[in-house]
Amino acid sequence: MSRLLRRLAxxxxxxxxxxxxxxxxxxxxxxxxxxxxxxxxxxPADVARIREQLGLNATPLVQYARFWKRLVHVGxxxxxxxxxxxxxxxxxxxxxxxxxxxxxxxxSFQKRQAVVDLVAVRLPRTFAxxxxxxxxxxxxxxxxxxxxxxxxxxxxxxxxxxxxLLGISAPTFLIALLLQYxxxxxxxxLPLDGFGKTVAEHARCLVLPAVTLGVYGAAYYTxxxxxxMAVLLQQDWVRTARAKGLSPMRVVLRHALRNALLPITTAxxxxxxxxxxxxVVTETVFRWPGLGELSVEATFDRDGPILLAxxxxxxxxxxxxxxxxxxxxxxLDPRVR
Length: 337
What we know:
Blueprint: H1 2-28, H2 33-38, H3 44-53, H4 60-71, E1 72-76, E2 90-96, E3 99-104, H5 115-150, H6 155-169, H7 172-186, H8 199-232, H9 236-243, H10 248-259, H11 261-276, H12 280-285, H13 291-301, H14 304-332
Antiparallel strand pairs: 1-3, 2-3
């Protein structure tokens, strides 16, 4: 329990540090968000009025204190989005009887909407893309890595390792454009981009971005699993298992692959956290309306509340995935326990 509490405290510190750095960078980047909201032809008086409405006339330290004070606080159990109270842009995080713990990212400068509502719409889409991409990575990467390890030194091993090197070296946008050209434009099997309106259309639109992430990540897992398995298959306990008459498939999957799960789990946890932050390039190329695309729009628009919200969600997803990986270690390897 004490170890878990230490890990939670360290995770909270990491989130605070990352968000603080993002806040400082956003404050130092040249550009006036009030001017972008008002327009290039706006009068100085209008820009000053908008700056005051957005709270940008305060010093960066005051804005920083306001952000953390507003981020998580206690408020009424029922929130009326149409009200003009301080809790109009909040979302209930933890109910506490008649009151509740609120999460509040403020209101978007450009969209003039509560940021929690924008994130709530985009987050499930990024989660779906991250899960689908992760499944493709693990299925293809682990399978090809195992095959390459069991056929080490053969032409098949060299082919798979060479293909994985090509997959790692190719930029993500190049893989995306190639898949779009082949499967969307030439064959017409899948949509070119977008999100669709029905569940079936969502699933069809998800295939190409998920495969794009999968091809890029599977190349890394192929080399990782191949190198780990090649070492494990030379161990004495593997030769003992073979001498006992166990089938080659059982030796590889039950004994060698099980012991290679620790590095695979570590890499998968880090990758999933990064994907939850938004695969920016992939979401932009395929116009997938997730957190990655939202963060790109916020960066160009100098929309600080949206940008900080994306940073908070990203950092929480990464530290949470790392924490789950640490907890899974004791299940995968009794020696860690």
